[in-house]
Amino acid sequence: VERIKDNIKTMCTHFTKAALSAAVISCLSTPAFAQTYDQDIETLTVTGTRLPISLTKLPGSVSVLTESDINASGALQLTDLIRGLPGVSLSQSGSPGGLTELRVRGGETNHLLVLIDGVVANDVGQGSLVDLAHLT
């Protein structure tokens, strides 16, 4: 029973990080340019469970990037923005705009689930790779 509980906690932690990573990728996939006008930004809440749970009560660590964090970072691309997050590593192949692999907590790229509107967006076996830079 304890082993099952540990497995569930591990799955929740991985799913939470994957969901947060997917949210960051899908929301911030275009280059971040300094803008001279105010713009309302929609608040996006991502959870690793079906129930709304406070960030302080989640069973794992969570990284939150606010608008001010994004503006202060000076990042021009999503990869620049998330490269410094704890537990996140990126590797890029080829020229700019080529394949970028995202790993969370040392896991392989196939251990990260990316959902867009509830549909798997990163299943190489099914040919469902999505260029996240084109999402709006």
Q: Could you characterize what this model shows?
A:
The protein is an alpha+beta fold and 136 residues long. It is built from three helices and six strands, in the order H-H-H-E-E-E-E-E-E. It has helices at 2-27, 67-73, 78-82; strands at 88-92, 100-104, 115-116, 119-120, 122-123, 128-129. It starts with a helix and ends in a 7-residue tail after the last strand. The mean pLDDT is 69. Residues 56-129 form the TonB-dependent receptor plug domain. Keywords: Signal.
Helical proportion, percent range = 25-40%
- What quaternary form is this? single chain
Strand content: 5-15%
Q: Assign the structural class, choosing from mainly alpha, mainly beta, alpha/beta, alpha+beta, or little secondary structure.
A: alpha+beta
**Total number of β-strand segments?**
6
CATH architecture heading: Beta Complex
User: How would you spell out the order of helices and strands?
Assistant: HHHEEEEEE
* CATH C-level: Mainly Beta
- Count of helical regions: 3
Using the coordinates shown, work out and report the CATH topology: Ferric Hydroxamate Uptake Protein, Chain A, domain 1
Task: Report the average pLDDT across residues.
Answer: 69
Gross morphology: globular
InterPro entries: Plug_dom, Plug_dom_sf, TonB-dep_rcpt-like
GO biological process, one term: siderophore transmembrane transport
Domain TonB-dependent receptor plug: 56-129
GO molecular function, one term: siderophore uptake transmembrane transporter activity
